[in-house]
Structures are given as structure tokens and as C-alpha cells.
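Q: A reviewer asked whether we had any structural model of the full assembly, not just the individual parts. We don't, so I'm hoping you can provide one. Inputs are below.
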Amino acid sequence: MAKPTLLLIDGNSLAFRSFYALINQVDRFVSHEGLHTNALVGFNNLLDGIVDPFKPDKALVAWDAGKTTFRTNSFGDYKGNRDKTPQELVEQFEPMKKMVELHGIKNYQLVDYEADDIIGTIAAAGDAAGYAVTIVTGDRDMRQLVTDNITVWLTKKGITEIDKYMPAQVAEVYGGLTPAQVVEVKGLQGDPSDNYPGVPGIGEKTAIKLIQEYHSIPTLYEHVDEMKASKRKENLITYRDDAFLSRELARIRTDAPLEINLDDLDYQGIHYQALIPFYQQLDFKQQLVKLANMGYVAADAKPVTQQPLKWVTLDFENEAELNRIEDVLDVYVELDGENYHRANIVGFVVGNAQVGYFASRNVDYLTQDSPVRKLLQNSVLKKRVFNAKALTVALARYGVQLTGVTFDLLLVSYLLNVNDNSNDLGQVAHEHQYFDVATDEEVYGKGAKFQIPADDQVFFEHLGRKAQTIGQLEPALMQQLTDQQQARLYTEIELPLTFVLADMEMQGITVNADHLLAMQSKFSERLSELQQKIYQQAGHEFNIQSTKQLGTVLFEEMGLKSLKKTKTGYSTSVEVLEQMTDVPIVESILQYRQLSKIQSTYVDGLLRVIHGSDSKVHTRYLQTLTQTGRLSSVDPNLQNIPVRVEEGRQIRSAFVPSHEGWSIFSADYSQIELRVLAHVTGDMEMQKAFLADEDIHASTARRIFGIPLADPISPNLRRQAKAVNFGIVYGISDFGLAKNIGTDRKTAKQIIETYLTEYSGVKAWTQKIIETAREQGYVETIAHRRRYLKDIKAKNFNLRSFAERTAMNTPIQGSAADIIKIAMIKMQTALKTHGLNSKMLLQVHDELIFEVPAEELATMHQLVPEIMDSAVQLDVPLKVETHEGKTWYDAK
DNA sequence: CCCGTCACG
DNA sequence: ACGTACGTGACGGGA
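A: Here is a predicted structure for the entire assembly that you could use as a starting point for your response.
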């Protein structure tokens, strides 16, 4: 008969592991009550993944009781170099213990003892009582407890993967030693993380070798005199006491005076119903979904019944049934990659709840005349989709002109809350408390395991669920849009824009590959010259692109003074290097850096993404990503093509019109963010300056530096005033301004105060917007785009300050984004109504780029500014400047 | 996969 | 006393 099982869990060790596994995202895991939950998430995964399937007979989670233990009493420095446990973790301990209880497991801690000792003691008792004992921990030293009946499960890097240690595995990593000998090794080796010393110069390798030979520390010292003279022998003798002390510190106790025994440890099983309010409090949505799928729902929840799903595999027998579809069609198309300009359609589904859903992998239904194709191209039939832009572009490649989209789940979800921007339909649905659909990861797997199911039953059911979800969510989400006064933002801006963007992306922009190739060979020659020069200046070869190696060369070998550090080493950023240009190698490195950036990101990078079929690049604009409402551009990013430095700027000469004799034409808003600032703040002084079409930075300089009208403004003061204007838009701080204009903090502070006195409307507005953010929890743009600021009331100064700057910046940056989006929609319409052949190709936040036939140039110079500056009516005028040229470079 | 760096508005 | 300008994406290096 199988032995009874006893599961012992090292609470502290695993809490720390969980916390640091997600340390980078500590601020992304915060409950609505402001509690950090990253460690709780990790710990919960651990319970789910290891404990729950284990179903032990008895179980315990052991915790440290506090800072002092018998170890600190015997050795004051024990764990003396540990940083204080971060507050973000401390606050998670109590809920974590509650989580343990709700999973049916007892917690235990004991004054003066560490979790290890509790586990050691119970494990020994369990071993003696005939249990199969399993210990789960992140602490490698626990392996000393292993016996034939005690297995140690050690978490690897993350926390969900584990290595299992039985005596054989311990022997394997410890060169044939027994678990009991682990403390002998540790005694010699010491442990920097616990701050006990061991013997200097002896690491794990040597310690194992010595214990292999002498078996233990006491016997080693019996024979120490026989060792041949060496530094090691000297150290062993000198640090004898440390070795014995460290050995004791490393030894886990098996005789702690516990007040509990095995009878108290019966595993209770999971208290499902009680977990619901607990998970709700922590905002553990995924866990709630899992509970719901098991039939556990909150007492006050609407009953979750899995909706029935009507679906069939589309075939030539049943395709006629599609003709019964009227009013509305839900559509979902699955691609085999995220870049929809290249990816293939691997499956699709159309239908609605009344008639049912029709799924297929056969793209002939799309490429050839079929009922499906007719429905998709029928403009009267309302389509409900997820990611209309991707769908439009993908279908267009199969010859289908999708029309009549009224509901885009992804887009609507993003507008309701910019954080709900997952490209996974299931995840988005779960955000809206709709659980009748799984995520792609759940169905397809991820990483190397990703696979579209070969089984039609599985694949089509998932597709059907997705399509059905879109339809099910539409009424509630459209209502929420209305409630948040965002209906017009959706119907008049974002939804029409999505099709404008689809057009621009499909149009693409032609890139002259020969030109890039010429640049490539010129640059690589120059790069190897610079490389040789740098090797010479350094005295040896090294990887210039490695910040680590570069730091060693500059700050250790060459003895330059390090001016700034990053958390991983010396900073070698431009900012730092520019202060050391008197050293020749630094100058060379700066040149090398600049050139290799252009080469790798722009020359090589662009060449890689030119489509063979049309010699164009087709970016994808992400419409549902940024926190402010701007677009972003990927694959390639065409919103950060160099312009400020001449060498880089020449990249732009590779961007050319797609027809002989055409031109590249650009139109940009002048100072749009400051104009928006003048509008939203209602500041009369700033508005006057714009109404008079003054040079705004000069005008600001005049006011904040008190320069009489008769006097000219020096370029330096104008530059400073410009920095102040930028600072205001970004949510200014004296430190930031000082750094930017190279003055001291006090002066910067004075400048800001003067600015806010001179522009009192701006001052009043910044105070008001922060107040508003605190009251409603969000800020808005002129088109009612919304951004929630969860940290606006944070106790932590940094988090709160950041939220306050965001509160000021988002209405400005976001409203500017609203304006150009409106202009783009109007522009596309105007091109059509004027019967122009010019094409809008790119958007770069405050500028639009077109390709234009020669005969339309004059018209465009007039029409484009007209459309752009009348996109919205502000209290100050909008100003637009236009340029044209044979290439993008020349359109300046 | 994260970090430092650097390109843009 | 805190540490600090807003919003993005791509690259190479190195765990």
C-alpha cells in the first residue's frame, strides 16, 4: 500500500521568489484597493500548479517569525547584509497566508526559528512516522534534508518549474556526497546572501573536493596539518572558527520546539466558494474564470451558464443557409502570424446567434465567388468584428472588400479603457466579465508549443465562440461608450480612422533598395575604419557594442572617471560620453555608435522589410496601444526615421514616390501641442500670442525673462524658453528643466515660478486637472478619450508625481492626437471628392506624408492645410506648413 | 527575455 | 526627504 503523503512548503523562500520573479512588473499588479499582488500571483500559481494536483494527506506552509532567531543570537551578522524586505512584499504576507488557508493548508511560524527549521523538524517526524515527505522551496540548502523518504522540490529560475531531489540527485550535483554533507560544504564555502563567511578562497567547487576527501569539517581539521603548505591551508587554519560556525548556521534544525504535530496538519482541500470573494478583492480575474468554469460563482453573481453555440463546418451543402442571415454578421478570421500584411488565413467563421456560425479552413470561399464573399462585401449588412483593420487588410489580400463594419470589439474596448488592449479576443472578453470564450493561449498554446488545432471540432468551436462573443458583447459595450460620452469618439473618429489606416498601410511607401545598398557599403567601410581606430586607441579588440566591455575599457583600463552608473554597471550613454570628448577614443565611439545605429536599425532594418512584390514597406499602425491616443508604428516603425542629424536624415532619400514624376509632399502642424495647451487652459496671454502668430518661444522668453519689446531675443534665451514650454507640456519639475537647459535647480525653479505667474491660466489649469484626476480617477482629451490614473492618490511620492505629470500631459498630447486623426479622415474623404490621385501614406504624430502627381501639387499645397487647420475649432488658430520634394529627404 | 541605448514627435 | 520631464519601437548584448 502506498505511503501517506506529507507536503511541506517553505513560505518565505517562495514568497520572495514569487515577488522577484515579477519584480519588473510590480506596479502592474495592483488591486483596486492599492495592494500589490505580484507575489500573490506567483504564489497562487504555485499552489495551483504543485499543491492542488498533489492532494497530500497532510500539508503545512512554514513561515519565518521575525528578524531575530537563534542564528542571529549566536552570530549577530547572520543575514546582516539583507536589504529590508520591500514594503510592496511585506503587505502581501497576510493575504498570502489567507490564500494558503483557503487552499486548505495550515500555516505555522515559531518565534526564534526560521521556516527551514520548522520544515526540518516536521520532515524528520514525518519520515519517522512512515510518510512520504515532499518539501517545496527555493532554498538550495534545503537539500541537506533529503532522505529515502524525503524529497526536495527546488524551484528553478521562475517559480513554476521545479527540480526534484532524491539522494541520487543530490549526489549528482554534490560530486557523490550525501545530503547530510551539504552543511559541511556550506561551512567551508560560506553564504554571502546569508552573510556568513566560511573560509576565504574556498568556493563550492573546492569545498566539494575537500569534503569528498575528508568527509566532514571536523575530520578535515584533524588532518589539516598533513596538508601541503599553501595559501588554502593557511586560510583553513586561520578561519577554523568561521568554518565551524558557518557549518552550524547552515545546519537546518530537526528538533525545533514546535507546538504542533502531524495530527494538526490534515489537508482540507480547496475552499472554492470562499476563494471567490478573496480573488475578487485581489482582482484575480483569471482565477475567477477558472472557478466559474468549475461551477463556482459569487453568491450574488448572475448565474453563469455556458451559452449554447450553434456552429457547423461550412460546406457546399449548407452554404445556402447563409442566405438566411439578415441585419448582422459576426466575423472572425484566424491568421498564422501577427503581421497581417504577410500572414495567411488559416480559418474563418461567419454567422450570427440566430442562424448559427459557419466555420472553415478553406479560403476558396473567400477567393472565389461564394455566399460568404457576398455577405462580407454586402455594405448593408452590419458586421461585428474584432480588429477591423487587420481583418480588412487580410481579406483584401484574398480579394474581399470588407464593408459595413459597425462594431469593432478591440477598438471599443480600448476606448473604454486604454489598458484593455490585448490582441487576444478571449482576454478582452474576460476583461468585460464575459467568460464563454477561451483565450488563444488556452486553445493554441504558446511559444514553441503554439499550434492551430488539427481537429476541426476544437478549432471551429473556438472560432465560433469568438464570433459569438463579439455579438454578445456589443450591446453592453456600446451602452458603456454612450455612458462615458465616447460614442462620437468611436463612430466619428476611431472607427472611420481604422479604414483610413488600412488604406495607408496597404498603399505602403516605396523604398529605393539600391540607394540603401549603396549607403550600406559606404557605412560598413566607415564602420570598420572606426572600429580599427577604436581598437588601436584601446590597445586591444573588444565588442564596442557591449556596454559592459566598453565600460571596462573606458573606466577601468583607461582610468576615465565614471560620471553615472546604471543598475547593471557604468553608464556609457551619449549624455555621459559627451562630457568626455577630450579623450580621443570617446569621440570615435560616439561616431561609431551613431553610424551603427543608422546602419543596423535603418539601412539593414528597412532592407529586411521591403516587400518583394512591390518594393514597398507596409507598416502597421497600432491603433489600440498608446496610453494617450497616439498611433504607434511597427514592422517597420516609420515614425522614427532619422531627421535631426544629417547622416541619418539621408535615410529619408530612400523613401520615394511610387510613380515616375511624382513628389513626396508633407504637411505638419506647427506647435500643435502648445496651441492645444493655450486652448484647454484658456490662458489669455498664450492665446494672444498665437492669435497674433508670434514666435511662441520668443514670446515666452520675453515674458519669463522680462525682455522689453524693443529689444531682440538672444538665441540662448529663446532656447531656454523653448525648453520651458516643453517642460510645461510634459509636467514640469525644476530638476528636469535644470538638467535640460544646463542650469542649477534653484534657477530652474525661479524660471518656472515666473512662468506660472506670467501664464496664470496655465497654473490654474494644472492645479485643476490634477484635482479632477483625483476626483474622477481619470483625465480626458477634447474628444473624450479617457486615461485612468490609478496612482493619482498613491502614498508613494514617485508614483503619485508621475500620475500628476501624466494628468497634465495626457489631455495635451491626446487632444493633439484627436485633432490629427480627425484631419486624416477628412483628408481621405477630400482626396476622393476632389477626384485626386494623391495618396496619403504616413502619419508621424503631427505630420502627414503623401505622394502626389506633379499636376496636383498646387492643389495639395492649398487643400491639405485647409483640411488640417479646420479639423477642429479651437480658441487659437491651428497652423500648417507644407513641403515637397523628389524624396522624403527633399520634402523639407 | 531584459537592459541600455538611441531614433522619432 | 523623496528622485524626476511626456509618448513610442528596434537593435545588440548578455544572462
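A: Points you may want to mention in the reply: The domain at 626-683+764-892 of chain A is CATH 3.30.70.370 (Alpha-Beta Plaits). The longest helix of chain A spans residues 797-833.
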